[in-house]
Request: fold
Amino acid sequence: MAKDVLVVIEHENGSPRRPSLEALALARRLAASFGGRALAAVAGHGVGDIARRVASSGADTVYHFDHELLGQYTPDGYRLVLEPLVRDLSPEWVLMGHTYLAQDLLPLVSARFDAPVVSDCVDAEVDGETVVLSRQPYDAKLVARIADRGPAPHFATLQSGAFPADELPDAHDGTVEQRPVDLSPDRLRRKVLEVRQAGGRTVDLTSAEIIVAGGRGLGSKEKFQQLIGQLAEALGGAAIGASRPVVDNDWLPHDHQIGSSGQTVSPKLYIGVGISGAIQHVVGIRGSQVIVAINKDKDAPIFNEATYGVVGDAEELVPAIAQAIAEARQS
Amino acid sequence: MKILVAIKQVPDKNARLQIDESGTRIVETDLSWEINESDRYAVETALRLKEARGDGEVVVVTLGPERARKAISSALAMGADRGIHLVDPDFQGGDPLCVARALAAVTRAEDAPLVLCGTRADDDGYGETPILLAGLLDRPAVFLTIGVEPLDGDRLRVVRELEAARQEVSEIPLPAVLGIQSGIFDVRFTSLKGIMAAKKKPVSQPTPTELGLSAEQIGKAGRRLEVLSLAPPEKKGQCEFIEGKPEEVAATLVEKLRREAKVL
Ligand SMILES: Cc1cc2nc3c(=O)[nH]c(=O)nc-3n(C[C@H](O)[C@H](O)[C@H](O)COP(=O)(O)OP(=O)(O)OC[C@H]3O[C@@H](n4cnc5c(N)ncnc54)[C@H](O)[C@@H]3O)c2cc1C
Ligand SMILES: Nc1ncnc2c1ncn2[C@@H]1O[C@H](COP(=O)(O)O)[C@@H](O)[C@H]1O
Reply:
């Protein structure tokens, strides 16, 4: 039997989200290798256009679920349409981008099939029907190659940006199949009251030209203020950013956080000090023109993103760098 | 209300990791260990919920070898009432689904209406155990919880973190499972008194059989996911490393930022 690959599509403002298209690109690759089809599921309310877009972007069949109660994502609503679809289609793999929605949803579905999720994958080796996925445990300090030895369906989520969506066709003649939806409010146990922006963002890093960001490696609130403050001042009042543990530990207010759950920045110059370079931070800084990383560990993943790297202790390096910058700016 | 908190012991963040000769695991000797970061927040959340209600019990559960007993002790010293250590060799070496099955069995045995997990174990980094657990128990769940407040009638008001500093506010009924995100509350310091008190708190070690589990559902025998290799990542990118004494590094860096990158 031909082996198909199913992608669960997320959408936002009338378009499929980029991580879903990246998953579709991998689905096409896997399906081609298996001799099967790339399938997609689109759930929502009034999302027929999105379903058609996905069909023309490379999905052979798009299963379209339309219901008022799917207008807002809820894990129960999505699971109640996806679980029967997966049972019905028996795909070899079910894929999603490793987004917040996928993390909230996909294990709920996979558990119904006695399967874990191979989560946050960055690479796939495909050889006929064998798929080996790579992930990055220990906050990307290591790479693990994983095989799922269980029976189909297998489930995986893909790290944003790891699988290029560029190779999707411009015009594909996939079909859209509308599926009936049977939902009632009492089956949705999570009642969403509100989706809001985190309160009072007073710090806007998105338009900053120069950002100095500090991480847990600075060791304490005092050191953070001293070293990052010094460097920002030498740069003529650069904006100050931080990794998540810094704001979690109250060294700095939350609105300075850069990364997947914080701000996405695109300065001319980003200097990261004592930041390891976890993907959740890195996605927020990839738009920077020049990245300077200062870290005492030469293997820290941040150096994979950096233009210039300095290996050493922030306490020794930052004062010297701040002084050199201050002098240069005066001359 | 009884609250079950799942905590995992992981290598300390600054550990130098080495791969063993199988090429699939890290060398565990000479590492120092700690409670996984988001799990500490889960313990804190449980203690606060108990304190707010003025009654209840906080039970911490960990699946791990002998060394993981220390993680339980630390949580008991923070104020948890009791520990469960899934230390039997049959529990070890599984994938997240195996862990979720074991946690599901404990949840049933304890009849705990609320289970708190962290969001992600910073070692393997799967970030899926709480939602798998919810799937197995058929309970509502919220992943990446950054706020929780009990309401009347066995419901919780929960804030879920979304991308780009957005949040979802919702209500869910108990029984439920929450994945607690780092930063939800400030984690308390452990007092000497807490450490002394912890020594007297009970820690049980149920076997798989006692929990109604067979070896094929858990641990190495039950896992689907097999690690074929574990290795340091290949270096990628074109980072230019600047070396020398701090003053030399500073001078070179400034020069490059001015003349090459033209950002100063
Ligand atoms: C769902 C989710 C969302 C997340 N969202 C975000 C987000 O939006 N933003 C974010 O930043 N993180 C986020 N995280 C957390 C992320 O995964 C990392 O845990 C976090 O970014 C690590 O922060 P860090 O680099 O400051 O700390 P660590 O990982 O602890 O790294 C500290 C670094 O400092 C170095 N160091 C130590 N001492 C010194 C010294 N004296 N001098 C120089 N260097 C030193 C160390 O070598 C190390 O590389 C999220 C996690 C999850 C699960
Ligand atoms: N071995 C374990 N023992 C107890 N709890 C665990 C264990 N593994 C994972 N968990 C819980 O599940 C959460 C997510 O883990 P993971 O899915 O492995 O990233 C952790 O933060 C813990 O709360």
In short: DSSP finds seven helices and 13 strands in chain B. Helices of chain B lie at 37-53, 69-78, 96-110, 129-137, 192-198, 219-222, 246-260. Chain B has a mean pLDDT of 96. The longest strand of chain B covers residues 141-151.
